[in-house]
Please model this.
Amino acid sequence: MEEIEKEYRALEIEKKWLNLWDESMYYFDWNSRKPHYIIDTPPPYPTGSFHIGNTLNWCYIDFIARYKRMRGYEVMFPQGWDCHGLPTEVKVEEKHGISKNDVPRDVFRKMCVEFTEGNIKKMRETMKRMGFSIDWSNEYITMYPEYFKKTQISFVRMYDKGLIYRAYHPVIHCPRCQTTIALAEIEYKSGKTMLNYIKFDEDVVIATTRPELIPACVALAVHPDDERYKNIVGKEVTVPTTEYKVRVIADEEVDPEFGTGIVMICTFGDRQDVKWWKKHDLELRMILDRDGRLNEKAGRYQGLSIREARQKILEDLEKEGRVLKKEEIDHNVGTCWRCKTPVEIIAEEQWFVRIEHDRILDGARKIKWIPEHMFSRLVGWVEGMEWDWVISRQRIFATPIPAWYCKKCGEILVAKEEWLPVDPTKDYPKIPCPSCGSVEFVGEDDVLDTWMDSSITPLAITGWPYEHKEYPTHLRPQGHDIIRTWAFYTILRSLALADEIPWYEIVINGMVLGEDGRKMSKSLGNIISPEEVIEKYGADALRQWAASGSTGSDVIFTWKEVVSASRFQQKFWSILRFSVNHLKGYKPDSKDAEKLRLADRWILSKLNRVIEKAINSMDSYRFDETLKAIRGFAWYDLADDYLEIVKSRLYSGSEEEKVGAKYALYKTISALIRMLAPFTPFLAEECWNIFCKATESGNESVHKQSYPEVEEEFIDDDAEERGELMRRIISEIRKLKHDRNMALNAPLKSVMIYTEKEIDTRDIAGAVNSKVEILKEFPSIETRIKQLKPKYSIIGPKFRDKAKEIIKAVNSFGEKEMRKLLEEGYEIEVNGEKIFLEKDWFDAVEERVFAGKDVQVLEVEGVIVLVEI
Ligand SMILES: [Zn+2]
Ligand SMILES: [Zn+2]
Model:
């Protein structure tokens, strides 16, 4: 066997295993007889960098996947890429210096595909370097036709079921990105704005933060119980800057406390306007176009941007003396998640997915949420939803909506499943218009929201829509930031398409915060990339950091945690190095268990408790608890205590004595390596390889081994209690050596122990380097005064040149005289002069004597230990 280096070189060893590992070891086999465990992994957005937040998420997934494999499951850990979307369109425009409308749609799409492929390649590398046990044979890429065909099938099926419809309805629109966005994509920002009090006529003054929307005013509203305005309900008032009149209506939802208590209803200032517009069946006056400019309905303000219109209208109103007051107020404004521009509401023909609130909540309730409180986030979101999900987008790089409009009669024709995949901007329907027989169509050029692709992942990975092999899947791991999007949409789609919940369990991870405890951001300069950590400490150390936080909570990135993870790796390496040296050629035999000594039984009992704890906490996704238990056991119980206790037996014991220690050590090391495998796959593989070579037990990967099982027969309270006592006796004796500046392996004359408990003197003797004797009777120990120590600070100044003589005299005292001096003082004669020595001028140095031997007395939990140095 080659010499094992003292230092654990994480970077070299990790690279070595990356080259040696065979990826197919993680391929999922549908035909496997093992119970299946299918993970609906998140398909990340291919930005080109796999960030530290992704790392945390994927570490959790990998801990689970590796653990479940070792527990006997056939695990599917697929990897998808959620490619479509606005950010890529923007990046590609920047990269090529074009606007998407400068080139044909398919040329632009091709640019996006190429760009995305490059990004996927980069991210894939980081994921491989992290040692994730991904099944790369189950990779899916949403921008490729084989995947988006499934998205289109899902659209067609939901359309046929009446769950998707096209309608003229207000939608949230970003004037900068010029596309519709979903409610879930709005980010609220708080800030200050001006509240303007504007006089419509003598009786009617309104307060508004959006004066530019006055030309879109379709009604005024007051609270029905507002005494101030009872007389104006039903009155018609001319809208300033326009010629037309609107009516004052009463509605319970008007807040009489806000502004003047009269509210202007526009189409549309906010979602409340939409509600009133529907409820009171008001007229629609859309003055805003998609590009964020006012149109002809705004009269003389046509062509102005929102900001310009606000200024111009306020100027005009001021000239007319209609602006009575302006006050600054705090307000929340909804902005686009991507570009932070305030969003607008416009009414357009769009495609919608029907939201069935109760059905979704009933489904979500059947899923186990970890941690549990995350479920309430979904409930809150669903209960607050007033609108259906708008799924059409005005973009290019996305899954095409498989639909056409008849040029002649306007009929909507949605593709048949067998025509898919289609791009209606290029392809034609295979049948004439079912309503008028015309063969002339206009293809839909709106595309689908990206969440339409990613919300069918659990279906897609289980064979739907062709041969749907198994459903629901077992687990969805994801971040808490996308509960109201990805989790919500997936549950909705799964119920709609498969009439089933998508997964039995969902485990939620938190976000990663910077070392300063704040959200990582470029402007704060606190971003850490996984590559940066890997280059310094390797992937295993970063993986251990990921396991350090509690599941569901945000985790702070700290270098300190990474450093201590890397120290643990070195510690474990040293443990292995020591152990395999003694395990060369050893194969455990059940007969060896009969030769176990107390220390061996003690460590095996503790080991089995750690295994029990690890299984329990892994099963409930408490990775921090598992790793902490394993690390604590390896570092303290095994290395600091057990190995120190059995060292002498292993080095110089008889074969008979050695075998128990070898058996216990073999079991402990084997179990520890396997328990570490889900967390530190590289370290575990290297250690397993060395361990197997030493013990001549094959060369199969640790990642194909089974997880340690609890062996109940080794759990032994009595051995733990007596083992603990033994450990403490040894540690007290070692402390004594330390306090006397003795080497820890320095020999002692003898150690005598009085205890009624049976303890193993062989191992104590070895550990403290002394013969050890058990006393049958309680030892009678005498205390002797060995010497009197003069207090020089008193005697020196008082007697000066006589001090020396006095000390000489005292030193010649016998036991009896010394005792007398300490009790009542003592008179001596120095050069004929009588001197009385006060008792507090001296300290006693005592010694304990047992059977005539000078001993140190230690007490450990009622056990008397006598040490003769
Ligand atoms: Zn935007
Ligand atoms: Zn037609």
